[in-house]
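User: what does the whole thing look like in 3D?
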Amino acid sequence: MVRDGRGLRGHEVMRSLREGGPVPPGPFRRGFWRSPIRGPWLTAVFGLVLLGGVTVVFLTGLLSYAAYNPDLPGNDQTPGKGALGFYLFAWPTHPYWLYRLSQGMHVTLGLVLIPVLLAKLWSVIPRLFQWPPVRSVAQLLERVSLLLLVGGAVFEFVTGVLNIQYWYVFPGSFYTLHLYGGWVFIAAFVAHVALKFRRMVTALRSRRLREELRIDTAATRPEAPDPDGLVSPNPAAATMSRRGALGLVGAGSLTLLVVTVGQTFGGPLRRTALLAPRGTDPGSGPNGFQINKTAAAAGITEARTGPGWRLVLAGGPRTVALSRAELLGMPQHVAHLPIACVEGWSTSDQAWSGVRLRDLARLAGVPGPASVHVESLQGGGGFGTASLRGNQVMDADSLLALRVNGADLSADHGFPARVIVPANPGVHNTKWVARMTFAT
Amino acid sequence: MSHFTRWYGAGPLNLLALLASFGLAGYAALHLAAARPAAVAVWFVGAAVGHDLLLLPLYAVADRSLVTLWRRPAAPLPALPWLNHVRVPALLSGLLLVVWFPSIFRLSHVYHPATGLSTAGYLARWLLVSAVLFGISALVLAVRLRRRRGAAVP
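Assistant: Here's the predicted 3D structure for the full assembly of 594 residues, as C-alpha cells:
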C-alpha cells in the first residue's frame, strides 16, 4: 500500500480511505484474478478499436439528429436540447444515399462494437475491485467518471438495441434517452481518452501485434507487471492465447455483422440478416419492400383514402385542393430513391413517380418556399406531420409520389400520395399526405 | 511533488479534465433525467451494475466451471484441446442471444403491427445459427483429433 506519510490535517477521511484496512477476500484480492492474458497491451488494443469505432458511432448519431431538421416546426423530438444543438445545420439532399449510409453505419457499427466493448470491460474488471477503493481525491473523481463511462456506454447500447427491436421498455422517449445519454457518455469518454491516451500508446508499443499473432496458447505468458494491477500476480496456465482472444472478439463482431448487415441491402441478400429486425420482406411485387409503419398501425382506413380524398395546398394567396386524378394529370417525374430508417435498416432504390414538390409549391403560389409543413391523414402522434426545408422542397428528385415501381402506392406505402425526398430520414417521408402548408 | 499533487493525487490537468467532463455530463444529465429522474438513474446505474456485477460474473463462472471440467483429472494440461471448441461457439451463440433476445423471445407487441413482419422464426433461426456454430467447431475438432491420432501412430 502506498503511504506518503504526510497525510494533511483536515483530511482524516481521505487518509482512512487511503489506508483501507485489511483487504476483504474474493475479488478484492489481486490473486483472485488469474487470467494470464489480461494486461495493459490487450486492454489497449480493445481501447484503440473503441476509440475509433465509438467516435464514428457518436458522430453519425449527431448527424442523425441534424437529419431531422429539428429547427423546423414539429420536427424536434428533443426540443429542450439547449446548447447541445450547437452544431445543427440544414440537412442536404445530396448525395441521395447520405442518410442510408450514415444511419446504416451508426446502427451496424454500433452492433459490431458490442463484443469489443464487452472484451474491454472484461479486461479491466479487476480495477473495479481494487482495495482500498479510493486512494486519493483524483481517484475518487476518476471512479465517478468511470461510472458515467461504463453506465453511459451500456445505457446507449441497451437503449439502441431495444429500440431497433421495438421493445420500448426504457423509461421515456427513445430520442430523449439516446440523445442525452449519448452526451453524458461522450463527456466521460473524452475525459477517459484524455487521461489514458498516453498509457494506451505506451502499452501498444510494449508488444508488436505481428509478433503477438505468432504466439500460440502453449507459449503465452503474462505481460510484465503493471502499475494498474491488470496483470495477475497469480496467473493460471493459459487456455487461450492473446491471438485467440483477439480472434474470438473479432469472430463475435463478424457474427453480428453477418446476421445484421443484410437489412441495409435490397434483393435476396436481405435474407442473410437472419436475426436483424428487417431481414425479411413484407411481401412481393412492386410494393413488397420494407414498410416504415403499416396503414393499420397508423389508423388509416379506406374510407379516408378513397375518391373523396383531396390534397390541400396552403400557405399561398389561395388554398388549392387537388384530387388524385388531378395530381396524375400534372407532369410526372421519376426518382430512384431508398427508404432509410433511423433504426438502421434501408431499402435499395425504388422507382417513385409523382409530382415534384417544387411544382406543388408553385401551384400553391409560394414558388420559393423556406419550408413546408406536411400533415398526414394519421393526424398527431408519432410522425403524423413533418416539416421539410426549402432545399428539400426544391430538389428535382423530391416528389409527392403517387406510384412506385410501376404500380399505384399500396396502402402501407402511403396511398393515395406520399412524400419522398433524397437523403431524408424515413419517418420524414410522410405517407397518406392530406395537407401541405408552404411557408416563406 | 507539489503541494497540490500530494493532496489531490494527480496533476492539475487531471482535475481540470474531469471537472470539464462533469460539467458537460451534468448539463446533459439535466436533460436526460428531466421527466423521470429516478427511473433514468436506475437504468443508468443499472446498466453499469448489470454488466459488472451480473453479466460478467455469470459468464466468468460458467467459463471457470468449463475449464475445471476440462482440467480434471489433475494433469498439468489435458491432452485433448477441446476447451476452446466449446468456448468459442458458446460465446458467439450467447452473444447473439444477449443482443437479439427481445426478438428471439417475441417480447415486442408493437413489432408486427408496425412493420407487417412476423415475429415468428427468430427463435428457430437463432437455434439454427447456434447449431451451425457448434457444428463447425465440432468438425474442426474432429479433423484436429484425427490428425493428432495419425501423427501418434507410426
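In plain terms: Chain A has 13 helices and ten strands. The radius of gyration of chain A is 28 Å.
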